[in-house]
Amino acid sequence: MSWDNLLQASFIISLITSGIRLAVPVLLAVLGEIITERAGVQNLGLEGIMAFGAFAGFATAFATGSGILGLLAGILAGMLMGLLMGYFAVTLKVNQVIAGISLVLLGQGAANFFYRQIFGVSQRPPRIAGLPEIPIPLLADIPYLGDILFRHNVVVYLTVLLVILVWIALFETTWGLKVRAVGEHPSAADTSGVNVAGIRYACTILGAAFAGLGGAVLSVAQMKLFTENMVAGRGWIAIALVIFSRWHPGLALAGAVLFGLADALQFRFQALGFEAVPYEFLLMLPYILTIIVLLAGGRRGAAPAALGTPYEKE
Amino acid sequence: MRGITKRFPGVLANDHVDFVLEAGEIHALLGENGAGKTTLMNILYGLYQPDEGEIYVNGRPAAIRSPHDAIQLGIGMVHQHFQLVPTFTVAENIVLGLPSRREPFLESRRQVHQQIAEVSRAYGLAVDPSCLVWQLSVGEQQRVEILKALYRGATVLILDEPTAVLTPQECERLFEILLALVQGGKSVIFISHKLDEVMAISHRVTVLRDGRVVGTARTQDITKQELARMMVGREMRPIEKPPASPAGPVIALQDIWAHDDRGLPALRSVSLEVRAGEILGIAGVDGNGQAELEEVLTGLRRPHRGRYLLAGQDVTHASARELFEAGLAHIPADRNRFGMVADMTLAENSILGLEGKPPFTRFGMLRYREMEQHCSHLIREYDIRAPGPAAFAGTLSGGNAQKLILAREISRRPKALVAAQPTRGLDIGATEYVRRKLLEQRERGCGVLLISTELEEILALSDRIAVIYEGQIVGMVDPACVDIEQLGLMMAGAIKEACELPPRPPADRPTAPGSAGHER
Amino acid sequence: MSDRATFPSAHRPSPAMSVLLKGSPVLAVILALLLGALIIAAVGVSPLAAYQSMIKGAFGSPRALTQAGLRAVPLLLISLGLTLAFRSRIWNIGAEGQLYMGAWVATLFALSFPNLPPALMLPGLLLAGFAGGALWGLVPALLRAYLGANEIVTSLLLNYVAIFWVSYQVRLPMKDPTSFLPQSAVLPAPASLPVLPGTRLHIGVILALLLVPLIAFILWKTPLGYRLRVVGSNPDAARFAGIDVPRHIIIVMVISGGLAGAAGMIEVAGVHHRLIQDISPGYGFTAIVVALLGQLNPFGALLASYFFASLVIGADSMQRVVGLPVALTEVIQALVVLFVLASEAFRRHRSRVVG
Q1: Which of B28, B116, B282, B463 could tie B278 with a disulfide, CB 3.0–4.6 Å?
Q2: How far apart are alpha carbons C141 and C135 in whole angstroms?
Q3: Could you give the CA distance from residue C312 to residue C283 in angstroms, rounded to a whole number?
Q4: Which residues of chain B make contact with A181, given a CB cutoff of 8 A?
Q5: If you count residue pairs, one on A and one on B, with CB atoms under 8 Å apart, how many are there?
Q6: Which of B131, B141, B161, B355 to mutate to test the interface with C (most CBs of C within 10 A)?
Q7: How far apart are CA B259 and CA C231, in angstroms?
Q8: Which distant-in-sequence residues (6+ apart) come within 8 Å of C287 by Cβ?
Q9: Tell me, what DSSP letter sits at residue A137?
Q10: Residue C114 preceded by cis peptide, ω within 30
C-alpha cells in the first residue's frame, strides 16, 4: 500500500461518492437543527434522537422488510422526541441545555434497551437489505461526475432536495419569515400576531423529525444493522456544524460533506491497512476537524438573537 | 373600556378603569411611571387579559384575546420598546405575520414597497422599505412602527411614550404626523408622563394614578398645574441645586476613540472632563454612543485610541475591577441585567464588587454576618422597601432595586460616579430620591457624570452639559442659558454652537461655572 | 439603534436561565421509577420481579454495597467538579474525556517511575491524574474564554479524541508485552491504592468524601465561590462588578477537569490496576445526571452518586435474573432529570399565579 494508490482516479471517485453518502445522516440532523434554532430553540438532544431513530428504522425495516417504512419509522421516532423537547422548552420553559442532554440519555437508553430486549446479543447481529441504488438515466453516464453525483440511493437525492426546500422555506415564504422573527425577536413576532409557541413547537418537532430520519438512514441505508453507539457523536457534530453553517442550509451542505469525506477517508485508510498511521488517529480525524471548523465559523453574532431563551409573555 | 381591572402578583395595576376614545381625537393617557397606563393599553391590544371589565369597539362588545384580534378590530400599537426585528428590512417587519397573495411565498418585494410608499406619502412617514432596521435612527424606527400599524388597517393608534427617544425637533415631526393621521380619520391614544406634550398635542386627557382614573378633561379646559396635581396627588418638589464649587478633574477623557460591538466607530475623538463636586450631563438621543461611553468609562470597553484619566491616574487600559478599586462607582442603565443578581440575596448583592475585601472576607473566608449587617445598614439608610437581607434581589420593585444599587455604589464613598439613565422607569418618589442623592454626591465632592435621555433631568441637575451626537461631543453648554430648542438642534447634529460655556478658569482657582454667577 | 428589550419582564431574569434546579428530586426519582415500571411491563416482564432483583442486587449483600461504593467514588468526584462548573454556567460535557486523559497520565507516571516509595507515588499519581484531566479541560476552557466557542460541543468532541487516544496507547506504545489484550502493563505495587482495612474499598473513598465539604466550602465560603456563582447566575452583572469572567471560566474547568482526571487515576490505580480501553463505563456522562439530581449541591451529589451507583449495580443483577438490558438505567436516569425539570417548572408556575 503506498501513496500512489491514493491518487488514482478510481480511489478519489469512490472517496467522494462515499463522502456524499456518509454525509447524509449528519446533513439531515444539521438541517433539522437549523430549523429548530432559527425559531429560537436549542435542541441538544440530537445524538439521542438519532440513536432512537436508528433503532426505530432498523427494527421496522427488519420486521417489514421495507427500507422505506424503516425511514418513516425514523421520522416518527424523531417527531415523538421533538414533541417532548418542545413541551419542555416551550411550555415548561426549562433550561434547554439540561433538557437536551436528558434527551440524549433518553434516546440512547431507549434505543439500546429496546434493541437488546428484542434482538438480544449475538456474535453476528441481524442485518437488513438496505435501499437500492438508483442511477439517474443519462446523467449517471457522465464520466467521473456521473459516478460521483448520480449513482446514489433515493435518500441522497431526497436530502439534496431537502436542502433546497429548507432554504426556500426559510427565506422565501411567509412561514419562514415568521420562524426567523420568532428566533430573533419573539415579542416583535408576538405583537405582529404570530403564534410564537406554535411556531416553536412546529420547528422543534420538524427538526427532530429530520434528526430521526438521519438516524434511520444510518441504520437502514448505510450500515444495515444496529449497534450500540452507532451514532458515534454525529449528533454532536451536527450541532457544531449548525454553528459553522451560520444557520444557513447552504453552508450546512458544505460542512456535512466535509465531515463525510473525513469519515470516508478514515474508513479507506483502515481498510487499506495503512500502517503508517494508527487507525485511532484516523478515527479522531472527523472530531478534530469539526472542532477546527467550529472555530473557523463561530462568530456568535450570527446566531438567532433569542436562541435558547424561553419566551415569557410578561 | 369599562371597569377594567388587572392584577399582577403583589400589585393592582388597573382598578376599575373607565376609558373612552372618541373618533378623530388625540386622547392623552397621563400618569407617572407605574400608574398603569401601559398595562391598560396592553389590555386593549390583547397582550394581557383583564381580570374584570369589558371592552367595546364601535359600540359592539369585543373580546380581544391576542394582538391578532386587536389588529382585526383596527387597533394598532407602537410600543415604548420597539417591537421590530433588527436584522429584517423595514418591509419584512411590516409584512411579518400578514398573509401574502402568493402563499406560501412572500409578496413580491416591489409590490410591498409600492404599498408602503403609498401609506408613507399619505401621512408624511418617509422611510426606505429596503433598509435594515438596525441601521435606522430611532425616529425612523418609530415611523416604521407607525407604518406597520397603518399597513394592517389600523384606525386606532396607541402610542406608548413615543417621545422618550426623540429630539425636540423629531417630536415636532411626530406631532405633525399625528395631526395628519387624525385629519385622515384615525384616532390616537397617546401615553405620556410629560405634561408639556400632553398640553400641546391632545384634545382630551385622562389622568391615571396608582391604577385608578383620577379624571378626564378636555385639554383646552384644564391647566398644567391642575393636571400635575391630578397626576401626582401633591405638588412636585422642585429640585434645589446649591451653587457648585468644583475642584480639579476626577474624570478626564482625552481624544477617546472606541468601536461598538459590530466594530463600527462608536466614539470619535471624545474629550471631556468631570471635576470633583460637579455634575456633567451628557445629553443626546439614545444610540449616539452613550452606551459605549458608559462602557469605556467603567472599564467594560477598551478604547483603541486616546487616554482616560481617573483622579490623575492613567486608567486607559484598566479593567473594570481596577477602576472600581480606584474609586469609580457605576449605576448602570440596564439595572436588571448589569446591576444585580436576581437569584442571590440582598446581602450578597450588597457587597458585589467588594467580596474579596475585609470585613466581608477574612482569612480567605466569606463572613455572612458582616454582609447582613452591611445590607441592613443600607436598607435603613437608604429607605429600601424590602423584607430583609435574606430576601432575593429579584423580588424588589424597580425603584427599590435602583435604591439598592445606588446605596451599594454610594456607600463606598466614590471619587467619581457614572450614572446612566438613573431614573428610567421609576415612579415620582423614587425619581426624586435618586436625584437628591446625586446632588448629595455632588455636594460631597464627588464628580458625577450623568447620562440621560430626559432633557429636563439633564437641565435640572447638571452644572455643565455635553451634547453627544454620532459618537462626538458636538458642544458643551451651560444649562443656565441654553434653551430646549437649541439643545434639541445640537442633539440632532444640526448646529454646533449654542450658548457655549466661556473658557474654563484655571483649575487651581475654584470658581462657579458659567458666566457671571447666576442660579436657575 | 433601539434597544431590544422585550416587555417589562418580571423582576427575576427568566428562571429557565437560572442554573439551579429547584424541583423535587425525591418525587422525580419515584416518578421515574414508576414510569420505568410501565416500560418493564410493556416488554412483558413483571416490574415487581425486576425491581426486586434490582434492590437485592444493589443492597442485598455486603459485596453489593461495596461494589456500589466503588462505583460511586468516580461519580462523586466528577459530579463535584461538575457542580462547580454548572453553577458557573459552564457546561462541561467532556468529563469522560478528562477522566481518560487523567487515567493515561497517571499510568504514564506510574510506569515511568516504578520504584517510588508509596509516600511519593500516591500523591504523584493524584497530581498526575489531576493534571491530565485539568489540561484536557483547559482546551475547551481557553476556546470558550477567548474565542467564544461553545464549550458543550468542544468538550464533547474532545471526549472521542481522548478515548481514541487511550485506545491507541494501550494497543501500541503502552501495551503489556505479556498479554494479547490491548491493555497496559500492570501497575507497579506502590501504585496500587491501599485498601481500607476490613473492607474492599480503596482510599479513594476517603478522598471523595473529604472533597464534599471542601467543594461546599469553596462554593459558599470563599470569594472565589461567590464569584463563580455570580458568573453562573448573571454573567453581565459579573463583568460589571469587575469579575474577570474568562479567568474564572478557566479556573472552573481546570478544577472540574482535574477532578475527572483524578477519578480516572482512581479507576486505574484502585480498581483495574492497569490502563484498559474501557476504563470508564460512562462515568463522565452519568456524573452529569448525578450533579443535576443533586441540585448542584455537593451533599446532594453525595447522595445522588450513591443512588446512581446502586442503580447500576442493581441493573446488572436485574439483567442476570430477569433478563432486562442494563440500558434501562440510562432511560431511568434521563426520566429523573426530566421529572426534576418538570417539577421545578410547575413549582415556578404555581408561585407566579398565587403571588
Answers
A1: B463
A2: 10
A3: 11
A4: 85, 88, 96-97
A5: 73
A6: B355
A7: 25
A8: C74, C75, C78, C79, C82, C95, C260, C305
A9: T
A10: no
Half-sphere exposure of C171 (CA within 13 A, CB side): 12
Averaged confidence pLDDT in chain B: 83
d(C-alpha B445, C-alpha A160), whole Å? 70
Angle between helices A234-244 and A9-38 (to 10 degrees): 80
| Chain-centroid distance, C-alpha B361 | 37
- Which amino acid is present at B370? E
C-beta separation of A223 from A230 below 8 A = yes
Flag if B81 and C5 touch (Cβ within 8 Å): yes
Q: Do C241 and B320 lie within an 8 Å CB cutoff?
A: yes
Q: Contact B332/C7, CB-based, under 8 Å? A: no
Q: Across the interface, do A191 and B66 touch by the CB < 8 Å criterion? A: no
pLDDT in the model for residue C92: 94
Instruction: Kindly provide the b/e burial profile for residues C320-346, where b requires at least 16 CB atoms within 10 angstroms of the residue's own CB.
Output: eebebbbbbbbbbbbbbbbbbbbbbbe
3-state secondary structure B239-290: CCCCCCCCCCEEEEEEEEEEECCCCCEEEEEEEEEEECCCEEEEECCCCCCH
Please report the ipTM that was assigned to this predicted complex: 0.87
Distance from C-alpha of B120 to C-alpha of B132, rounded to nearest angstrom: 17
User: If you search the block for the grid coordinates 462602557, which residue do you land on?
Assistant: B295
Most distant pair of Cα atoms in chain B: their distance: 74
- Using a 10 angstrom Cβ sphere, with 0-12 exposed, 13-18 middle and 19 or more buried, the burial of residue B303 is buried
Residue B69 C-beta-side C-alpha neighbours within 13 Å:
16
Identify the segments of chain A with pLDDT beneath 50.
1, 314
Number of helices followed by number of strands (H, E) in chain B: 16, 22
- Whether the pLDDT of residue C1 is over 70: the answer is no
Long-range contacts of residues B371-377, Cβ cutoff 8 Å, at least 24 apart? B371/B347, B372/B347, B374/B347, B374/B350, B375/B346, B375/B347, B375/B350, B375/B351
Count of CB atoms situated within 10 Å of the CB of C127: 18
Average pLDDT rounded to a whole number, residues C298-319: 91
Within 10 A of C86 (CB to CB), how many other CB atoms are there?
Answer: 25
CB-based contact A241:A26 (threshold 8 Å): yes
Identify the H or E element spanning B320: helix B320-325
- Residue B263 CB-half CA count within 13 A: 2
Phi-psi sector, B269: left (phi>0), alpha (psi -120 to 50), beta: left
Q: Which residues pair with B288 in a beta bridge?
A: none
Over the range B319-337, which residues count as b (16 or more CB within 10 Å of their CB) and which as e? bbbebbebbbbbbbbebbb
